[in-house]
Amino acid sequence: MQATTKDAADSAGAEHTVERLRSALDDVSTDALVGGSAATNLDVLDASSRDLKVIVPTILVVIFVVLSLLLRSLLAPLVLVAANVVSFAATIGISALVFDHVLGFNGGDPAIPLYGFVFLVALGIDYSIFLMTRVREESLVRGTRTGVLVGLAVTGGVITSAGIVLASTFSALAVLPIQFLVQIAFIVGFGVLLDTFVVRSLLVPAVAHDLGRRVWWPSRLVADGGGSGPGHHAAGVHPPAEEPGDAGRPA
After folding, report:
1. Would the pTM count as exceeding 0.90?
2. Computed from CA positions of residues 171, 175, 176, 182, in that sequence, does the dihedral angle turn out positive or negative?
3. How many Cα neighbours within 13 Å face the side chain of 133?
C-alpha cells in the first residue's frame, strides 16, 4: 500500500506522521512495516541519537580512566574532561549559527555531531596530555601554581603550532562541493583553534592555577603541598649539583 504525506519527506512533519502511523499499525499487527524516504530519515535520526547517547559517555569514561592513571589524580582528569565537553558544546553552538545564518545550509547529516565529537575530543585530549604531564613534572619541583606557569610556557608553542597546522589541514576539506565535508571541516577546524587558543591556553591553566595543589587530589602531591619544596625533594628529583667554582660565589 502506497501513500504520500502532505509534508515534504525530509521535514519534521513527515517524520511525525510516520511515528503516528507506526504506532497505529502496531495496534493492528506487529508485522506491519512503514517504509519510504520519511521513514528512512526517521530511522537514521533515531540511530544517530542512540549512538550519541551511548558512544559519547563511553569515550568520556575511557578518557577519564586513562588520564587518572597518567596523572595519578581524579580532580585533574575531571577538569580536563569537563573542558573538552565545554569546548565541544561551544563549537557545535557556533557552528549551528554559521551553518544556519551565514552559509544558509538547510539541515545536515544527523551523524555530524558524533563525528565532530570524536575528532575534537581525540585531538583535544592530546593537547591536554602534553600540557598536564609537563605541569605535573614541574609541580614536583616548583609547586603547582609555578608548575602551571612553567608548563604552559614550555608546551604553549608546541600546542599552538600543532593546532594551527591541524586546523588548516581539516579546513582544506571545505573546498569540496559536499555539504557534509564542509560542515565537518568547519567544526573540526574551528573547534581545534578554540581548544588551542582558549581552552588549553587559558581555561585549563587558569582552573589548575586557582585550584593549586588540590588539582592533584588524591595523590601525594596534595599532602606534599603540590611540590617538593626546599629540602623536601620528590623521589627521583634532586637539585642541580653546584658547578666547580660556585662555592662562595654570591647568589
Report:
1. no
2. positive
3. 10
CB 219 within 8 A of CB 132: no
pLDDT digits (tens, 9 = 90+) for 34-70: 777 777 777 778 888 888 889 999 999 999 999 999 8
Judge contact between 216 and 71, C-beta under 8 A: yes
Q: Using an 8 Å Cβ cutoff, are 170 and 207 in contact? A: no
| Cα within 13 Å of Cα(242), Cβ side | 8
Give start and end residues of each alpha helix (H) in 27-111.
37-71, 75-97
CA distance 123 to 199: 13
- Name the residue among 48, 62, 202, 35 with its Cα closest to residue 121: 62
Cis bond upstream, residue 177 (ω within 30): no
Long-range pairs for 62-66: beta carbons < 8 A, 24 or more residues apart:
63/121, 63/125
Per 3-state DSSP, what percentage of the chain is helix, strand, and coil (rounded to 5)? 75, 0, 25
